[in-house]
Design brief:
- The chain is built from 3 helices and 13 strands.
- The protein is mainly β.
- The chain has one domain (4-207): Deoxyuridine triphosphatase (dUTPase) (Deoxyuridine 5'-Triphosphate Nucleotidohydrolase, Chain A, Distorted Sandwich), CATH 2.70.40.10.
- Strands 1-8-11-10 form a 4-stranded antiparallel β-sheet.
- The longest helix has 10 residues, at 4-13.
- It is globular, with a radius of gyration of 22 Å.
């Protein structure tokens, strides 16, 4: 894992890019990233289900019930955008919030890892579930999945996580993330990106 002087050397060399860069955010072996102003939640979608009536003796039409559709890994879902104002924004339990880092980063020779901050963990905030490890060649703002166990007010620009970098043991990969045709989350998006897992099914259909 890179320590502060190695991170600074990599930035000077251009193998790590952090924009904007603040020397005060550099820790002993990590860099503090900050919460951007926009949050996303998935918009609810509904479907009508039908079932026979319990007293269906005379050919009565079936009962109709409107229920919320679950998220589906095969389908894109509409999102709702929330802007964090000066008064902050309250995260509520049971809701998934997608957030992004203020910082745009590039990592060309190292494996980037995004961790939460322990002080926020002690307030019940988790910033990701399965996406902590990035790829060599990832160039973008980081999208984070925010969960809380109690209502928690957060503020735009607050430190929300820590980036760390590991050196690779065998040199550079054969193909970096930015060069992969299947890469979904490259670019330069200050706003968080919703899941595009559904693209895997579109590709499989096309290959078939």
């Amino acid at each position: 894992m890179l320590v502060d002087r190695e991170i600074l050397a990599a930035i000077k060399k251009g193998t790590i890019v952090i924009e904007p860069f603040d020397r005060e955010a550099l820790g002993t072996n990590s860099y503090d990233v900050h919460l951007a102003q926009t949050l996303l939640t998935y918009a609810p979608a509904y479907e009508v289900t039908k079932r026979a009536r319990d007293d269906d003796y005379y050919g009565s039409p079936p009962m109709q019930t409107t229920v919320e559709k679950p998220l589906d890994v095969r389908e894109a879902r509409v999102t709702i955008e929330h802007v964090i104002g000066h008064e902050g924004f309250v995260l509520n339990p049971g809701e998934l919030y997608l957030a992004s880092t203020v910082e745009y980063t590039e990592s060309h020779h190292h494996v980037p890892i995004l961790n939460g901050k322990s002080s926020l963990g002690r307030l019940g905030l988790s910033i990701h579930v399965t996406a902590g490890t990035g790829d060599v060649g990832f160039c973008n703002h980081w999208t984070m999945e925010l969960f809380v166990i109690k209502p928690l007010r957060v503020y735009a620009g607050m430190p929300v996580g820590q980036l760390l970098w590991h050196s690779t043991s065998g040199g550079l990969p054969l193909r970096s993330y930015k060069d992969k045709p299947s890469a979904k989350y490259g670019g330069r998006d200050l706003k968080p990106r919703a899941s595009e897992f559904w693209r895997n099914f579109d590709k499989a259909k096309g290959d078939g």
